Amino acid sequence: MASIIKRPYRLSDGRDLIYYDDADTTLDPERSPDLREPSARPATATMRQDPLTGEWVSIAAARQNRVMLPPAELDPLAPATPSNPSEIPSLYDVAVFENKSPSFGPLLADDNQPEGLDDLATVGLGRTRTSVGRCEVVCFSPETTGSFGSLTPSRARTVIEAWADRTAALSALPAVRQVFPFENRGQAIGVTLHHPHGQIYAYPYITPRTNALIRSLDAYGPTLFADILERERASERVVLAGQHWTAFVPFAARWPIEIHLLPHRHVADFAETSAEERDELATLYLRVLRGVDALYDTPTPYIAAWHQAPVGVRRDEIRLMLQLTSPRRGADKLKYLAGSEAAMGAWIGDIPPETAAAAIREAIDRADRESPVGELPVQVTDLVTVVPDSDSVNPRKADR
């Protein structure tokens, strides 16, 4: 048994940076400080309410300045070098840091922040609220190319541990209503960096998709997730199943490639999963992703969205769930959201879910034969936090 180690630091401008060392890491425990001159952080964005839907839109102009597909030698998520003073000062296994150009935050409190769920649900004209919250970047690897599916089982397990740790920490922040880990993969999805990474959004509201889910729970009842899982596990749409998780193409799939992954036990978010569930997920999820890539001769673009229960709302009914979607409907064809889907939200599926499931099962089997994932090299115990000395955590403390 071994431990994943958490090492919290700060960047020169005060943003949090957290290293998560693999349970079988070979890294030196020391980390270099961020010696860049501090730069001013952007102002926190403002949310505006759409009175036609009641939904909130964060107007985050600072995002216009984010880096767009830089060359590998200027990768802002690679370990820093003299010629590339990146966001991460040292070599790492997994690193998490506050986004430099966030959609929500850096403020966690403000005079115009949402006053609660009733305030957010009120509909009016010209309503604004400060976009308090937090946006974080999760770097899966120091490599400049790849995705979650290219990780080792040990590294995948470290990322899952980071998701769980950050879910717990972000859920405890004031004004945060929901925490959302996700990965965008591929230029067809709109990624701006080739580096293998994901993000975590901590929203100051409950998202529209989750509000729609709550309406379904109200109409169906609290056993919705358990009943979906039982029905899907008995269907031909299952693509992979383990002791703790089942992956399947949903009955009413919208996208040409769409896979849902549910834990067998009710857990509201990553923070509630057990060590055994995280261990199995590290290898099972890799097999799913490598199967998706094996469908065609080139990597498949996708969005891997980890839906979690809101903070303090319906947590005994809403279950942690992955919804992986891809617009790829052929080797060189993409599904674009045209009039019916984009304008009216009325979806038309291109491929029967049972046909898609059969193709994905075959692709997972082929990937297992050609590039087996393997087992976790060590079983993981509890996360261990190691806090360096204050000057290393906050290297410019003496300058202020």
Automatic annotation (TrEMBL):
Catalysed reactions, semicolon-separated: alpha-D-galactose 1-phosphate + UDP-alpha-D-glucose = alpha-D-glucose 1-phosphate + UDP-alpha-D-galactose
Region (Disordered): 24-46
GO molecular function: UDP-glucose:hexose-1-phosphate uridylyltransferase activity
EC number: 2.7.7.12
Native source organism of the sequence: Leifsonia williamsii
Pathway: Carbohydrate metabolism; galactose metabolism
Keywords: Carbohydrate metabolism, Galactose metabolism, Metal-binding, Nucleotidyltransferase, Transferase, Zinc
Basic and acidic residues: compositionally biased ranges: 28-39
Protein name: Galactose-1-phosphate uridylyltransferase
Cofactor: Zn(2+)
Domain of life of the organism encoding this protein: Bacteria
Family label: Belongs to the galactose-1-phosphate uridylyltransferase type 1 family.
Pfam families with a match to the protein in the record: GalP_UDP_tr_C, GalP_UDP_transf
Domain Galactose-1-phosphate uridyl transferase N-terminal: residue ranges: 48-206
Limits of the Galactose-1-phosphate uridyl transferase C-terminal domain: 221-317
